[in-house]
Structure prediction request, 427 residues.
Amino acid sequence: MTAERQVIIIGSGPAGLTAALYAARANLKPLVIEGVEAGGQLMLTTMVENWPGYRDGIMGPDLMTELRAQAERFGAEIIQGDVSAVDLSQRPFTVSMGKTSYTAQTLIVATGASAKWLDLGVDKKLSGRGVSTCATCDGFFFKGRPVAVIGGGDTAMEEAIYLSKLATSVTVIHRRDSLRASKVMQDKAMSMPNISFIWNTEVVDIKDVDKGEVTALVLKNTQSGATSELAVDGVFIGIGHVPNTALFKGQLALHDNGYLKTRDGSRTSVPGVFAAGDVQDHVYRQAVTAAGSGCMAAIDAERFLSGTLHEASESLEVRS
Amino acid sequence: MASENVKALTDADFGESVKKGVVLVDFWATWCAPCRRIAPIVDQLASEYHGRITVAKVDIDENPMTPSKFMVRGIPTLLLFKDGDLKETVVGLANKDDLAKMIDKHL
Prediction:
């Protein structure tokens, strides 16, 4: 058991590191446990064009390197590894990483969300064998070969655009008849000559597990039920994310979709535990909103520690 | 923070290098952000298992044959060989404790 902390932050994406920056500047000496997916989703992106203040954009990994250095400059301590368990039943809260345990008076949960897989079973078996959730990591292996992208949101479009520069052809497979992606991403994807779209279609199987590589996708039209095969060497999944809340089940209130419930700023259902970023946001899910909520969580934690946290509001009502 | 305990392998010497004992190989590239995340963990394993296993890395840009031979289609990928046989494949990020457990199985 190590010395008790004032605040532990779990997660090191924009939410966790912004919380760390604010907590460090408030002299709370935060401990950040970065997690296996350190740096968060931005580590897997290329150019981030909507982070305010960078008119020409900034590379996702560069942004996270800067943010990390900035938090460290003010005294945040960042350690590697994954949290294996938390005990929120009493304060100080206990956060365990295997055999090592840490305790703290407040906790900021910023564990984010991870890429969702297809739920076919075969996609995980062929992970790293042609199935990927990260075009910038794995696109290299598909130079001059045909690939598919599954999904219709910004993530899927970004993957398709990135891959179009490497692959011979990129086929986007989407289960609806229109894209959810932002207009600017849609236009960009549609303008690429080697990106094509297959609408109203789901992937029901990926071949070929026996060969240990991807050879084709089995597709099913959601309207007609007709099945077909598309020969590809690689498939990139961009169908959204799932919140990383497994650690908190039974201890913090969750929405039905698995996201953490927060109210009145960053409060969770346990006093002294605050949440920020994608783990509690299934609506906006932007780097800048994650960072903003990380700031809120740090301020809330600081006020909780000093006994000056504002009273929780009961409801929103118009008073005459 | 490249460690002197992690040996850089090439297409030319790969086969010979994994022939004996337990060898953990990290396939990586300079442009791969998650690879930069797993590198320090691989370095730590190299020091902790120093003398008991060989820890090596392959830059896939400079050595395309080896990843192709072992059907590596994504990085980071870690392969564990024992006396020349491929025993374990870990695709993507992993935490140190799990990797240590995996190595211990083969010692």
Q: What stands out?
A: Helices of chain A lie at 14-25, 60-73, 122-125, 135-138, 154-164, 183-191, 287-306. Chain A has seven helices and 19 strands. Chain A has a mean pLDDT of 93. Chain A touches chain B at residues 36-39, 43-44, 60-61, 80-82, 98, 127-130, 132, 134, 136-138, 140-142, 212-214, 234 (CB under 8 Å).
